[in-house]
Fold each of these.
Amino acid sequence: MPAHYCGNCSTVAFEEDDECVECHTARPEEYGWPLLRDSLDPWLGRVLDGRYLLTRQIGTGASASVYRAESLAISRQFAIKIIHPAKSRSGPSAEQIAARLEREIEALGRLRNPHIVRFYDVIELPLNHIGVVMDFVAGDTLEELVQSEGGLEEERASSLLRQICNGVYEAHLSGMTHRDLKPENIMVERLPVGDEFVHVLDFGIVHLDGETAMTHGFIGTPLYASPEQAMGEAVDHRSDIYALGAIFFFMLTGRPPFLGEHVMQVLRQHVERPAPKLTEELGRKTPSLIAYDKLIRGMLSKEMSRRPQDLAEVIRALDQHRFDRNDSGTFRSGMHQMLPPKEPSEALVEDATDADVSGEFVSRPSSGTQPGVAGSFVPPRENPLDEPAPTTLQGESSAVVGMDDIELPEGFDGSRFGCSTDFRLTYIHGDTLYVCDMTSSEVITLEIVDADQARCLALGAEYVLVGRVDGKIDRYRLEDGLHETLFESVFADEVVSVSIGPGDRLMLAAMRSGKIYMSAVNKTERDWVRVRGGGPVRGMTLSPRGDVFAVAREGGDVEVSRSGEAKQVRVRMSPEGDVRHVAFSEDGYLIGLATRPEAVGLYQVINGMHMLDVGLVGSDPLAIFFSSDNVLMGFVHEGDRLRVLNLQATMEPA
């Protein structure tokens, strides 16, 4: 098996390879290929189920990563999608997801449409990760194609849309709804003769007719979500028709029909704003554009009953337009015979204006996966090709992140300090609780009760948890400073660490005695249960997803557990020295352990392997955290100032 990888494209490599098989980079002469064990990717180079060698990561997102894999049994490549554990305890369990995927694979196996990428197997992986084996498709996504070329020529876009409709229509006839159609889920392969062939990817969150247990709330992608998805209401195949109308608009114009500064703004437009006119967006009126405009506006109708009622109507409308133009050419390969001309439905020919939808806009959290999207939603740039590619901070020492320092009060000692992954921090000085946002320089001050009893802090979205020497856990609301006691140890056991999960729901507390308490699931916030005992605790933290937590014991041991199985230690690490700071990466694959002032050790969460050390070069942080793009950061106290450093500017091999 290969033990190395290419530092340029992260493809696995054998020691004797003269150049990378993927990007043709020559083997470094002085040191050779880097070792896989030093890679920050815990899956690269691993063999899954004894059959599939993961050779390269080809996509990643907040909920899943996709790898190219070589079969060890036959000469064939596959794509394997590794689904991360659920972000919250309220979501489906790994067993539910695996069972659901197996049902979907069985259902998709009955389809024979060449435009749908087939699934073959489900593999259960460590720490409740799940691998899904599917066809590997070489080509560009529709998103990449349009971003590189701009809006497509009308007949080319029509040809691609017809192929997409052809595949999705067969799935609809079998009772399946995709629910997350978007340009990133559509691959365009160029065949040897030059024709373009479409593959529809990722039926990973499809909805089978009659199944409702795991489909409540918004699932999908905001830029292409139907109004009923945005409202968290029941959906059917007509939601896919809406998404395809938005995709057709994107293909012709180079932009989605609705844009906004944040998710809720985009979803509100899907619910309330009439569909934009294609002719106005392109600044010209031709018979073909007028026809396509009517088709798109029908597909983007707010009311499901006013859209085409099946994709056969859309295909007929596309064919009718081709017949009307007396086009003597034929559709490109991969397309089935044209449907016979038929009068299109009223939904396709009326110039609907879609009056504003009445009623209150209701938002619901996403419960579905969004492959390809890392962290929070960011709308596309207006001119993505004109923007310089983002760069990673590099240098010979820890690099200052480009945001203002904050001034600290005189006598600040940093002993009671907490932070979150979005550059927010909290600390206690005197009788005051401070909450600071480094990105906006906003500072909130709250009066704290019995400040001398405060021992540790955890910062959530709307609250700050305060663990106390007398065994109490208090919660302060940022909006108005409202204070309440959530927990009190009957033995006055000192609280040495507290942590709060996403959405301020899950809470953990570690006591001096070694006991770990967790807020009880589906009960009031004042119901806590003991989940673990052990030796004295130095620190504890939840992952950004809230699905995994780590407990650092005195003497050096670090225990990693899943929140849903809090009594079971899944991985145990034994770094040298007592742990001073602990932080999980945003994707939950890495954990940073600071045991000495000059370095932070990075470990794989899945197997506990020590990968490398990040040198701090004279910067002893008050706290460490990973940013949304998985860069190790730290809050550093210097004089009367506090600043944020990129701690990965210098990396020393372990």
Note: The domain at 401-653 is CATH 2.130.10.10 (Methylamine Dehydrogenase; Chain H).
Amino acid sequence: MSKEQVIIFDTTLRDGEQSPGASMNTKEKIQIATQLERLGVDVIEAGFAAASPGDFEAINEIAKVVKKSTVCSLARALENDIIQAAKAIEPAAKKRIHTFIATSPIHMEYKLKMSPETVIKKAVEAVKLAKSFVSDVEFSCEDAGRSDIGFLKEIIDAVIEVGATTINIPDTVGIRLPNEIGAMIKELYEHINNRAIISVHNHNDLGLAVANSLAAIQNGARQVECTINGLGERAGNAALEEIVMALRVRKDVFSNVYTNINTKEIYPTSRLIASITGIEPQPNKAIVGRNAFAHESGIHQDGVLKNKLTYEIFSPKEIGLNKDDTLILGKHSGRAAFKAKLEKLGFSLNEEELNSAFKRFKELADKKKDIYDDDIRALITSNMTSVENSFELVALQIMDSTGGVPSAAVTIKTPKGEKITDAGIGDGTIDAIFKTIDRITGHLGELKDYKVKSLSQGKDALANVTVQVQFNKDEPAVIGHGLSIDTMLASAKAYLGALNSYLSMQGLLKKRHKGV
């Protein structure tokens, strides 16, 4: 029996970014897209072009660099959405427009305020327009999990008739059980009868997203929409790494299907995205969690020592986690070793970026004896919030004597090249630093989230600070990263990084308004 491909549609950059605190800038998204292509993802949903100038720019830049994977933009069943999507993905070697409209009774009545007949009409118009730009058009029945199966068949027939090549059946609110999803996909598979590929997009509200995706594959779905680390709004999406490894490990059940995923890139991809978003997988997360291959029980340890297969159903090396890799970089490491390490960790830098990164690495190596993989990841990702004509931290001095008032003196280089020094007090040292930065830059930020993580071991471990700051109440918060052996210094860098990202987005918005 010949095997059929399960298309892996990764939406980390679109749905995954909707995780609270997971917003990324264009540089970060390009790095992730490049790594997703290395991973072997078939379709990269790079964003929602009509959502913001930042989304449009990121999709457009990704479309220029990704060659093997299909680059996709989401679009509502609206004319402007589809036109923006088409413009954004225009440079891509392989491109797709993914348009959608809600099909459940509750969504049609209360959200869309449309009759079923009008919904079908809008869907057909959207697919027709998308088809005029690209040959590869995906149509999604939003909230299909709560939609009437008869109506689903009706709207699916209509959009296939005008050119939809993939039909996505999302369990948008994550309410269905595996047997229910399986039965629904089986009935639709028999109805569609190879006229289009059936896709599923399962949310994890009941912790069943992966199970539902696997049930769908067993019943005819040949595309799964998923994210790295299960990122996504609310409880997240089906985790790519779990679906792929389930198909790989349980070949006895899934003997008729395969994916193009290079599983040895799973762990590097997971770590890259965790480093960029600041959202770590839970320690006991399947496949990529910190404890996924940790054996503490004496009985387990004894078994693993005798034969790893007693408690490990696959080798960590299969996902690119090589615990025997002892290559630790230090001050004497050369540029070639550094470049090789970056490539292994999933980073793709041009010559100028590589030179800059190597310089920062050498500066760090003078302060820190051993530099580990997570140090390198943070070294690169922390610099991705830097933009041209940005504010730059020159010096920081803190004063917090016992019983005294926390204060900070900060020197910042402005976009015009001017150096400004000021000092201020706060409710704590961090508060004093951030308030002083606000006064120097003239931009008042509201701290929404603050995280500090020690990246390695020892007294010289790097502090990786991730902040989420809102500079305008009418706009979403932005993320900044800061890296230093000194936590206060890392905090200042992270806050400035968030400000620079915000100002960069404002610049893009102004350009779009001017029609540039």
Note: Residues 295-301 have pLDDT under 50 and may be disordered.
Amino acid sequence: MGFDGRRVVSFESRRAQEMADLVARQGGAPLSAPTMREIPVEQNAEALAFAERLFGGGFDVVLLLTGVGTRMLAKAVETKYSRERFAEGLKGVVTVARGPKPVAALREMGLKPTVLVPEPNTWRDVLTTLDRQSPVAGKRVAVQEYGQPNPELIEGLKGRGAEVTAVPVYQWALPEDLGPLRHAIREIAGGRADFALFTSATQARHLFQVAEADGTAGALREGFRRVCIGSIGPIASEGILAEGLKADYEPDSPHMGELVRDLARRGGDLLHKKRTAHEGGIDTHGWRRVDMAWGAEAERRAATADSAFMKACRREKADYTPIWLMRQAGRYQREYRELRATVPFLDLCKTPDLAAEVTLMAVDRLGADAAIIFADILLVLEPMGVDLEFSKGEGPVIHNPVRTAQDVDRLREVTGEELGYVFEALRVTRRALRPDIPLIGFAGAPFTVASYAVEGGGSRHYEHTKGLMYRDKGAWDALMERLTRLLTGYLNAQIAAGADAVQLFDSWVGCLSPDDYAAFVLPHMKRLIDGLKKPTPVLHFGTGNPSLLELMKQAGGDVIGLDWRVDLADAWARLGDDVAVMGNLDPIALFASPNEIRRQAQRILDKAAGRPGHIFNLGHGILPGASPDHVAVLVDAVHELSAR
């Protein structure tokens, strides 16, 4: 963990020393190269004109985009008017603060913002927040600009029907002493830098402005091909992209401390990947995660087989307890939410490059010991003729549920090959995934998939499912047999496409009694698992009813997943030493403090007692409201506390 003595270049100006201290505390060798200084707009006629129009009721909305800009605007207005009058004028309009810094500046004037723009505080977030909380159609809007105009924001406001007035309050200039910046350029161009940290788009622009003037821009861009670039957020990343580079990492929270800490945590792996890519001829200035390619297939297979995860599946000793997390790619991550804002869920599942990108993103950010392909357990129903929709806020909805023998007979017989987009996503992911990180394929177990098809969506009591089971066992068995054939072919095709292990999710099976499981589920599960290609490990996960564990083992699987409702030590004793186990931290534990998360992780590890064959996981998936930082705390805690 930490930068491990690597050279870290940062371009922060106002907080240059703070940045250097953060880097040093994380074990890096800091090189501070300030790129800009603030120049107040002299004799700010625009600010005074804004104030006069504000006092006259000429604005409806005032957008305050930076803390420094808000204070400078107040100072400019105070050259002619009192602070009290300015504050009184702002009370009469909707004030919009882009993040906490303008909030602090308003507080100094005794004011609170009407609208607060949430992280990551980009101009897109400003527009989205206004659309939700205070639409600007027909409104007169003043925008406090910072450093340079923001044409995208201005056009976005105008496109929504606003009358927009820009109020510039300060500009950015190059630092008076360019020595540190030129030194940083030489270090990067000469291959003597490992990381570069940007906290604004202006830093990237000024860096290359100096390099262009000195004739070193080409060498600088070439040097950046082997440097891991950290960006504080989307606006800085856009500025980096405008200079022909690509940010390699953005923290989920756009704060300097998070940027340094996250890169110290994950930067070693990201740097190794980028330099391996460059040596392999990949253009690291325009690449995506899916563009990565590692070594020869035989070497990859050997590295995968020797991984901690695969050893645990085989109940062999490993250097530490491996960890991966169900839903490790999901709504708790900003990068995932931003993608989902533009791509419907089913389209994301059905676009191989996007599904692979999301799968790889989770491993890059978490440092988990396995990846699980991004897909959904209900995708198999569509080719069978089931009308499936993912409704926003409601989850999956099936418009033609399967509730009678006639409905079962109408289902199309399919093999799973109709889901080729999943197999292509697996192939892309396996090629781009680090060799020592296994890739997990998955499917819903027949009972859970059948329950969705019968219920038509989520259920509390499963009355339709159990009604079909009890009323017409022949129809139930026919449905389960059809799903079992489909899922067997589907998982074997995933294995052929690159899955190193496969997991069966039986998320709803806990609603059954042991007798019902034995009669209605066990024969089908056993036939499915027996039909999967050997020696690929099979992870068998169910939730909600610990009394089913022995029957689940009887059905098959190399690893039995445990939810949080069972004691891990007791469950493993019941299952026996001839099977591995996975689990089983309560997902809600991720909402606790970091110290408590570590304590809970230690408790689970103590239950496993260092026995070979334990894979650490949650007792179910990560919840959308979980903190990415807390998820990282768990991963690090398991690695650290289980090291042998």
Note: The chain has a mean pLDDT of 95.
